[in-house]
Amino acid sequence: MTAHKVLREDIDILGGKEKVIVVGGGMLGCETAEFVSKKSKGQKKVIVVEMLAELGSDGDTIDREFLIQRLCEKRDPGSSEHESG
Q1: Which of 36, 55, 61, 66 has CB atoms 3.0–4.6 Å from 25's, for a disulfide?
Q2: For residue 39, is it within any domain?
Q3: At 13, phi and psi to the nearest 5?
Q4: Is the pTM of this model over 0.85?
Q5: Whole-number Å distance between alpha carbons of 42 and 33
Q6: Burial of 28 by CB count in 10 Å (0-12 exposed, 13-18 middle, 19+ buried)?
Q7: CA torsion 28→33→35→39, rounded to 10°?
Q8: Is position 31 within any domain?
């Protein structure tokens, strides 16, 4: 599935699994993660996987900062900020 289908609500993201994995942590991936979290009212654990060192690195500095701040507010306190494997 693509971010565009999720954001257009062409697919049902609320049914199914407890976790949603967003592959790609650019601005679109981060915005998609935030959208899924809001739509599920926090009932889905949303995981963003990014190969670069920072999320949202393709965005303007101010947009990126606000988006990252909103994502951090939703972050599970038990999760690590940066997991590698």
Answers
A1: 55
A2: yes
A3: -95, -10
A4: no
A5: 11
A6: middle
A7: 160
A8: yes
Q: Per the structure, how many domains does the chain have?
A: 1
Q: Is residue 67 part of a domain?
A: yes
pLDDT of residue 65: 92
Confidence at residue 74, expressed as pLDDT on a 0 to 100 scale: 76
Task: Provide the b/e sequence for 55-84 (b: ≥16 CB within 10 Å).
Answer: bbeebeeeebeebbeebeeeeeeeeeeeee
Which residue type is seen at 61?
Answer: T
Percentage of the chain surpassing pLDDT 70? 88
Reported confidence tier of residue 79, pLDDT bands at 50, 70, 90: low
Give Cα separations from 77 to 25, 26, 47, 61 (angstroms). Answer: 20, 22, 13, 25
> Is 48 contained in some domain?
yes
How many CA atoms are closer than 13 Å to the CA of 84, on its beta-carbon side? Answer: 4
